[in-house]
Amino acid sequence: MKRRRNKHSAVVLLVWGLNAAGIFALLLIFMIYWLKQPALAASQAGPSSTAYPASTSIPTRYNLPTVTPNPRSTEIVVKSPTPFVLANLKPGVIGYSISGRPIEVYSFGQGEKRRMIVAGIHGGYEWNTIALADQLMAYINQHPETIPPDVTLYVLRDLNPDGDARDHGVDGRVNDHGVDLNRNFPVNWTATWDRDGCFDLAPTTSGTGPGSEPETRLLMNFLALHKIEALISYHSAALGIFPGGTPWDESSVRLAKAIAKVSDYPYPPIETGCVYNGTLADYAVSRGAAAVDLELSDHEHTDFRVNLKVLNVLLNFQK
Predict the structure, then answer these.
(1) d(Cα 226, Cα 24) in Å, to the nearest integer?
(2) Cβ 223 vs Cβ 283: under 8 Å
(3) Would you list the domain boundaries of the chain?
(4) CB 72, CB 239: distance < 8 Å
(5) Alpha-carbon distance 179 to 55, whole Å?
(6) Which of 177, 172, 167, 199 is nearest to 279 (CA)?
(7) Counting CB atoms within 10 angstroms of each CB, which of 3, 156, 286, 291 has the fewest?
(8) Who contacts 105 (Cβ-Cβ below 8 Å, separation ≥6)?
(9) Residues in a beta bridge with 235
(10) Per-residue confidence in pLDDT tens, the chain, 319 aa
C-alpha cells in the first residue's frame, strides 16, 4: 500500500535549510572581515615607518625606606638637553639605547696608554656630568696638545641618552627599562639592595640580571676591546671620590688621592650608609683599570676649571 507524502515535512525541511544557509553566510562574512584586519593595519602603517624597539614602562613605585640626607646636596636645576656638535671631529657610535638613541664615544690622541671618561650614566638626573664632558672635549679640540703623545683618551659623553631625553630631574635617572645602569654591571650585582642612605626619590631596579641592559653591554664590549688603564665615571653630587673594587683597589685608591690633591672633592668620600653594587668602577677594575666614581659638587655646575686639573691627573696617571 502506497504511503502519502506529508506536505508538512517538506515545509520543515525548507525552513531548516534556509536557517543553515543564513548561518553559513554569517560565518563567511565574519571570516572575511577577520582576515582583512592585518592587511588593513599594515596599509595604515605606511611603507616608510620605522619602529624602534619597544620600551618597557618604568616599574611601579616602591615603598622605600627614608633616605639619609646628603649634607652637601643641592636642589636640582632643571635644564633642557642641548645637542653636542664638535667641529671637525665625529664620534664613533658603539651601539644604540633601548629607544634607538646612539651611544657615542669620542677619541683624542693616538698613544698606547688608554684613558677613559664616562658621563651621563644617570642620564638627565646628572645632566651636568654630560655638560662637563662636552666642555672638556671642546677644550681638548681647541688645545690638542693637552693629550700627551703616548696617550689615547676616550670620552663616552652620555651612557643613558634615553634618561637624558626623558627628564633633567629625578625621572631622568634610569634607562627606558627603569634600570639604574650603575647597578647593572656584572661585578657584585644584586637583584635588590637596602635603600637606606641610597637614592630613593623615584623607582629604580638593578635590571633583570647582571648586564641585562643594552647600554651596559655596549660599554662592557668597549672595555673588552680596549685596554683602558685608568677611568673616571662622573656623577653628581657632592659625596666625593669612590675608588672601584671591593675592597677598594690599590691603584684606584692612588687615582682617587691624586684627584683629591688637585680638587676640593672629598676623599675618603662622604658615607651615607648606602652599599653600591654592580657599579661601572667595580667592573672597570675587574678589567684591569684603575677606576673611580667622581661626584661633582652639585647638580647644577660642571666645575670645569677644577676638572681641567682632574683631566691632567687622569692623562698622566701611571697604574
Answers:
(1) 68
(2) yes
(3) 92-316
(4) yes
(5) 12
(6) 199
(7) 3
(8) 91, 92, 94, 154, 155, 156, 222
(9) 295
(10) 444 444 455 555 555 566 666 676 666 666 665 555 444 333 333 333 333 333 333 333 323 333 334 444 344 444 445 567 777 888 999 999 999 999 999 999 999 999 999 999 999 999 999 999 999 999 999 999 999 999 999 999 999 999 999 999 999 999 999 999 999 999 999 999 998 889 988 999 999 999 999 999 999 999 999 999 999 999 999 999 999 999 999 999 999 999 999 999 999 999 999 999 999 999 999 999 999 999 999 999 999 999 999 999 999 999 8
End-to-end CA separation in angstroms for the chain: 118
CATH topology of domain 92-316: Aminopeptidase (3.40.630)
Residue 188's nearest CA partner among 83, 286, 274, 53 is 286
Number of residues written out for the chain: 319
- Paired residues of 106 in beta bridges: 155
Angle at the Cα of 195 (from 285 to 296), degrees rounded to 5? Answer: 55
Nearest alpha carbon to residue 310 among 44, 183, 129:
129
Burial 258-274 (b: 16+ CB within 10 A, else e): bbbeebebebebeebeb
Q: Which residue has the cell 647638580?
A: 299
Contact 317, 230 (CB under 8 A): yes
Grid coordinates standing for 259?
Answer: 684627584
Is there a contact between 149 and 128 (Cβ–Cβ < 8 Å)? no
Stated pTM of the model: 0.76
Nearest to 137, CA basis, from 114, 163, 108, 103: 108
